Queue: 3 jobs
Job 1
Amino acid sequence: MLNQFSRTQLIYGEAAMRKLAASRVAVFGIGGVGGYVVEALARSGIGALELIDDDRVCLTNLNRQILATRKTVGRHKVDVAAERVLEIAPDCRVSVHKTFFLPEKKDQFHFEDYDYVIDAIDTVTGKLAIIECANAANVPVISSMGAGNKVDASAFEVADIYETSVCPLARVMRQQCRKRGIQSLKVAYSREKPLRPLEDMSISCRSHCICPPGTARKCTERRDIPGSTAFVPAVAGLIIAGEVVNDLCREYLEERA
């Protein structure tokens, strides 16, 4: 029967679409990268999405985040994302967590209930905790490396963390994964050397913070405020979503090869 996922089914087949519909995916971080991940997963027929982020849409998000519009400024990103998912795929089961994931909050999440975990947050301690929890639950995980201060979307690729180079965040993650005994980790990273943001205080959040009321973590408290483009985070997010869908459907794709 013709439905909204019929074009996808022409590629993956009916059995794979049933697998996607039965899958539950957790997305940690619903920003420039994570927002596009959620978008693509909803349009691919994922049956259940768990969205984790405490941030609100800011005016400065409009340059790159698919959930950011003039109408959504000030709203929680997970709420905006949930509404958008249901407008695309009304049968998708969406749950939201308005929280900033930290290691001490890991017990709030049941990783064994997920079929795939996506790490699209910025903090190293949080990323490592997500990865360790997913590994302990024997659930596949993919982690996004740095997408800020870059202009070449074609430089992104998927690799094991120990095969990465150039990316400063990937370098830190390699070191920390090695210390913690994490033997492998699938990541999306860029081979592009990041640019140094211009020091223009007239447009800097340092001196002109416009974070919406109620924002827990303001830009003025961040160690560094990266520059960004409309297309680099989007490509990273779509690459990650593609890896998730293809991994979940791997057996069906191999049958068609």
Job 2
Amino acid sequence: MFSSLIRYRPDRASHQRVWQLAWPMMLSNITVPLLGLVDTAVMGHLPEPRYLAAIAVGGVIFTSIYWTFGFLRMGTTGLVAQAHGRDDGSGIRRYLGQSLLIASVIGILIWLLRGPLIELALQLTGAAPDVIDEARRYALIRAWGAPAVLCNFVLLGWFVGNQNTRIPLLLLTLTNVINIVLNLLFVFGLGMRTEGVALGTVIAEYASLLMGLWFCRKLLLNLSGEFKAKALLYWHDYAELFHVNRYLFVRTLLLLFCFAFFTAQGARMGTDVVAANAVLLNFLMLISHALDGFAHATEALAGRALGRKKKRDFYQIILTATLWSLISAMLITLFFAIAGETVISWLTSINEVRAIAGQYLPWLVALPLLAVWSYLLDGIFIGTTQVKVMQNTMIISVILVFLPVWWLTQGMGNHGLWLAFSSFFIARSLTGGWVYWRLTQQNRWGLAPE
């Protein structure tokens, strides 16, 4: 990956462009796992671990459901970034309208089917009956937020594709501040439990949607081109979106299968283990969302460079993002190595959960350096809409690496589960890196020769 980039050494302008988009996304992304940390901390300081375990189980259900449709953000970002590079204002408007309509329909369907979806997911987790009861109460409330969540995915992707990451920072910060305040109010002020955390999340999701639409309207007033309503009426007008999103859909299903499988296997080892893994998974969310700041910048800038057919800009952005992603991963690893035990103690006062989480903390210390490459490569592939590649490398990583490693290491208990999880990230990085090298060697990015 690196040898092909040496001749495109980044200049000061490329560093500024990457950081201009990356820092708002890093801050806004970090607010997402911080919300999970607050939920964990609120439940973790209640007297029984079943509340914490219920949030973990209920949370992974909606993480799985919502992230299944993560293509609504990723596909929108790549297509809009390329349209932005072509100065195609009409295309930018069309992608927004079509994606919001798709998101609304899917969100309403999730709400209508919430009962059977939640029951099926709860049974698959294999959690204890008292945990399932609490998780059910949480999940039934969370389902009301489905249309808002999926439309927010579209808006975030649309803003990033338009090279604007400060609005997503504001929106995600607003969402999480409202959620945190309401969680504390409902749980400690009104004596609610898991249902209070779920209700606070739903209210925050709709507040974010309303503000996002307001910002969207302001940006559209200064955008060239026109919107044609008939583009929403006929299936053939959605062909480009569907082509991109079908591969992202399969890729995301496989990714979420790994997370759901991880949680379910932990649940079979006992309530304390699944609760401890929930604490550590919040660390993983912090890692991925922080490193995704540079991936999002790469999506927007690489997509724009491709739209403009600028080969030098394209490779300079990739090299710059690679450099800063590696530095960030090293700093995150150092932070968890030094402060991991302290953060665990902040998140839960249950001694058994603390002890188990501390036992498996070294896996989290290593993960930033293992996973950073997969995040960066995803940013490149999304921005260039090379999404079939993302699907195929994910199939290899899950079917040929993650599941076989888990099967062979079951005798290692939770350590085997974490080993399989780490192997999954390594496989994604290696397969994605190989594909990137092949596309570069064969000049298949669609860039104009210099």
Job 3
Amino acid sequence: MFEAKPGTFLATLNKRLTRTIITGAEHLVALGKSGPGMLIMNHTTVVDVIVTLGSLHKLGYTVDVACKESCTHTRHIRPIGTSDVWNYSFTRKIVEGSGVIPVDQHDGRSAYRDALRALDNDECVLIYPEGDVKINADASPRPWRPGAVALAKSRLMPIIPIAHHDSRKLGSGTVAKSIILALTRWSKRPVIHLNIGRPIFPEELVGKNATEIGQIMFDRLVETWQLAKAAN
């Protein structure tokens, strides 16, 4: 059921579990149909991937593996995801059929190299810069790990911020608890707002150091999240 089609599955699951309201979809055109690109997202619960990746699939940006024949997708996305998802049968079946780049929570160097190779192959990488789901009370974006900024500094490419509020309605806590909560809320379908923010174009980052690049990216994600929260 999941093989090679995790995006399809997540889109179906998101439709059944939530009422996700998407704004700013027009900003995705900045990615184009080829060339390196990056999506940055806030992270509040392990099950927010259902909302974010499911919504992106609906818009034509899928984490399904590359199509072998004719392709109806606008772009295929390479998410960077914790290797912990391979520890659970439900999530393992999904990620094994996708282009997920696994990252070790204690050493991200291998994932970083894989992400660079993906960008050099003109692929689009998706990253959760916070790197974990240690949540703020209001679910606002938190300090980042260095990977997203390092990738942004290494390659000229459009970067699109995407933020949701509040996927914790779907499930929160440990991986197991979050999944169980999400899958037992079939009849409630919480409303979750997903906002696709203003793109950051390469020329905005040229000549900037890592600190400056990180601040630009973080501010744009906060702006994107604030719009999602205001609509909630």
